[in-house]
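anyone seen this seq b4? input:
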Amino acid sequence: MQTAGPEDVSFLDNRRYAGLLAQTKAGAVILHPDFAEKVPEGCIALAVPEPYVGWAKISALFYPFPQAVPGIHPSAVIDPSAVVDASAEIGAGAVIGAGAQIGAGTSIGALAYVGPGVVVGRDCRIHAQVTLSHAILGDRVVIYPGARIGQDGFGFAISKTGFTPVPQLGRVLIGDGAEIGANSTIDRGSAQDTIIGPGVHIDNLVQIGHNVNIGAFSVVVAQAGISGSTQIGQGVMIAAQAGLTGHLKIGDKARIGAQSGVMQDVPTGEEVLGAPAQNVKSFFREVITLRKLAQSGRKGPKQGSDKE
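predicted toks r here
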């Protein structure tokens, strides 16, 4: 708001910045109805219950996401048995394998690889250098550059003579509207499928192991790692660099803090933090207690004491 001019639209979502509203020179401000009467003269108040959502929608009107430009680049390699909708865009150097299906309005970026039998739904955006194998994607899925979807999971049997690889036989199923960040990796299932639910948002540099099931509209932030066969509910938030061991159950709307080491199930709605992860209130009580002990230890003995 402090840099916007008369031809700009701005927004107020965080109440900490409410003090900037009176001085803004913006032509319009998206804000909560509680602040609508506080906009200065000459500024239009666009009052909505969720200002940041309003900002996202208005921004998309001025800067819409690019649409597919129908056509196949001459350097693309498409197997004769693949089915590519006439309205899809296939970029330079892309490879579409045997029996693959590319839906209407979908764009496949330069040097992307869509393996045999992979199904990509309608209006998807598969960015440059993505590799897809053993996967079925719904509609409006976005996969950012360098992501690897459907490679074999980390599965092997250990014996006295060493490691015996276990064949990975499952797929990756990605629901409508999911987004997968750049350079993230999602392993195919072993004997069952890895499932990424509708509307799930996965940040850059995330690793998801085989047989993981992530419920609808969950969020996984950068550098988090989820080990195999973990079941994650709907609306879960996993913060950056969190690590989850395998075969866990994470309840709906649970919140896992940054750099947490999760080694046991997390109940529905629980918020955990630390390594090993625990209830966030317990975590901060321990931090405060340790800080007090450390501070009292630095003070040393009282004057007049005969202790060394």
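The mean pLDDT is 95. The longest helix spans residues 280-298. kinda curious what u guys think
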